Amino acid sequence: MVVAVQEQRRQMRADNVPEAAMNELFRFTKNHVDELFSNSEYDNAVGAFEGAMYESEGYYRPEQNCLMFTRYEQFCLVCRAAIDKVIDEYTLAVE
What we know:
The chain has 4 helices and 2 strands, in the order H-H-E-E-H-H. By secondary structure, the chain is an alpha+beta fold. It has one domain (about 1-95). A two-stranded antiparallel ribbon has the order 1-2. A hairpin with a 2-residue loop joins strand 1 and strand 2 (about 55-65). Helix 1 (about 1-15) packs antiparallel against helix 2 (about 20-35). The longest helix is centred in the first third of the chain and has 19 residues, at about 20-35. The radius of gyration is 16 Å and the shape is globular. The N and C termini lie far apart (about 50 Å).
């Protein structure tokens, strides 16, 4: 499904569809993934979950539901820690 949605997204961008239509596709994808993961034993677990960078195989994300997979509203714990580290590197150097 991910590959089909990405192809649809590319076509919608090429056709210059209104942003509201693009947002509806994102909502559809999010709802599908939420349902898919709703009963997972790995909810909020850190690990190596295959499927990232718009590919279903060969790339891994740190949590089952991560922006690298679903465009979720928030970053997973691992991504947040990495962002905090980069921000700290730049802001602590200024002090």
